[in-house]
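Cast an eye over this sequence plus tokens and walk me through the fold:

***
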Amino acid sequence: MTSLSNTAVTCLLAILSSAAAPAATPTTLAASDLCLLPRPQRLDIAGPAFRVSNAWSIGIGPGVNADSSALEALKEGFESRHGVRVSAGTNAGQGGPAIVLSIQPGAVEIGAAQDRDRAALAAQAYRITLNEKEVRIVANTDAGLFYGVETLVQLATHRNGETWLPAGEIVDWPDLQLREIYWDDAHHLDRLDAMKHAIRQAAFFKINGFVLKLEGHFQFKSAPAVVEPYALSPAEYQELTDYALRYHVQLIPYLDTPAHIAFILKHPEYASFRAFPDSNYELSTVNPDAVKVIEGMCQDLIDANKGVDYFYLSTDEPYYLGKSDGSPFGEAGRMKELGSPGKLLAEFLDKTAGYLHDRGRTVVFWGEYPLKPADVASLPAFLVNGETNEPDFDAAFKARGIRQLIYTSTEGEERLFPNYALAQAERLLHAPEKRRERVAEAIAAVQSDAARQKGDLMGLLVAGWADMGLHPETFWLGYATIASAGWDPAAANAGQDTLAFYRLFYGTSAPRMDRIYELMSRQAQFWDDSWDGKASTARKGIWGNSSSIFRPRHPAHDQTLPLPPVPAADDLAFDPVKPNERRSQLVAQYAAENEELAGLLAAAADRAERNRYNIEVMRSIAGLCRQNLDMLRGMDQIGLRLAEAHAASDARPAAAVAALDAGLDSVGQMRRARDAALRAATQTWYKSWQPRVAEANGRTFLHELDDVKDHLPDRTVGMEYLVYRELQLPLGEWASKVLAARNQYAKAHGLAERSEAVEWVSPDPTRQ
């Protein structure tokens, strides 16, 4: 018997590709042939591999119900992924090979783990024994059996059109009981079937917490003013909750308070609850009516979320806690009485989190600013901290009895696509800020977190923030690989786990997914980097940041491009702006790579065995990147046309006018290309999203920006935020001035005037 350490269990995509499969039938499956995510704690391979075919059946052993999700996952997984139909029956195994499922409490013993709650870990443990006559999965509970089945489905490999399993044994359990992902629907609402697909996909990778932020996308009975045109009804939320529980996933509500609640405080009905009258960012924690609103919204969510144990009452970034003064609900006086902003937060949590605790929920919060280690003793001991901190903080939380999760993220502030790979600094126009390669950085953080020694860990959270309006389909690489480090951190390996993800998520036939993700990451980074920054004149200023309140407000940030000067009407002279040669060089390089990416995505869309919609989303993003590259090249061409017009203005007025017309035509071409790219993205994303609209279902959306956080999707009601910077570029005004100069020059030289206006901002760029 060959005993393999977890770190030896690798997944080599090229080896596993069906196209590259050897002609000979394998007699053994090496460690490199196995592709598991997360990888098991103990895996032993012994003897030759064996075939699994339709001749196999499923044996339903003790403790397993006929409607078991494990039984469903086994049948569906083998048929959809491996083309093998196995039938279930209590007498299976008596007349042929069988996969036997059984639940026997206490049958599987677990080994070393970080989480001290060994009963919670044992509830997820399982053992698989495999030989050519029988595969047997034994677990202590339903959850463990389900995880054992998912491992078996991943374990099977293909050779010569046949399905193979290795002989041997797996004994497995998690390092941490909770492995959660954060799903952010604050700025859009996924359709119900899309959310169910996401939950089922999470369960396949042994993710057991789906933390859902909805903001106005839930039909709050207690706060009807905040409900947006498309919002989940309580019945739909419960349906989603029940669906998740079937696959051993907790659908966990997420509600911000006291900060990050512009979605509440922007409404006139709740403006009196603000900590500061001129900011919709943060409420007054000492206003009893504000507390009642939060409690009512919490009650609405838990009423529609029966069966779940947890609730995220986010205390994220309450920058101004205790700073508001004035009567009757200024916080400064109460903060002074208590002694610190952290103690004021503790008092607020005692009320709001206490409300949830009294109703059976374990409350997760963010144990950070304005807390200091000395404030932790004031917190309710029933809380769970959703993040780890420096060692002194972690020790204080442990001493208070507050358990912790490791916080990581698959996306933070990136636009269009997460930083799964980093563009080289020399291939960026502006000096790059500190950037992180998401998977490698997050796995390393899980493995080395100081709270392993100082804190009391029980799980991890992988966040996918929607602040920049990304499609959540882009988050799955990080969700799956980083969460797997919560199952067995010692086995986690960014490179190997990424390859495992490509095979398990897309199938063995999708080509060059590693190159696709590399190019997608770098294309998105250049999309953001290729424009310059400026102070915005289109939106209200920013009220404050983590350091201070701005008096007066600071301008918001926008992106822009330099426009060519308008030529003089008499001789078409202009003071040419020297083109940014570095930008033009980079555009040429990224355009070539975009062509390569388009070809790879087309091939992947054709050959991927599953999750083709995910590839479709990536194709729409690549299209947005291509439109940006084409526009940048178009801007260079406009400058050349103006120079040609000036050069011809003395002796060849007709040629000069033709050159001006070509430049003006370029504006229309760029507009049509922009609208087409936006339209393609909108059509693709709306397959899984409800429309972002101002009015529907008898409800209206109040378009009022956050006073502190400048979130990109907030800038428009619809999908136009994807091309917001193009719409803000005053290219239409510039074209109107050029047209006026062109017509004056043409009239002076006896040439026809051009009557049609040059349109840059379309009435509705998402429609034909």
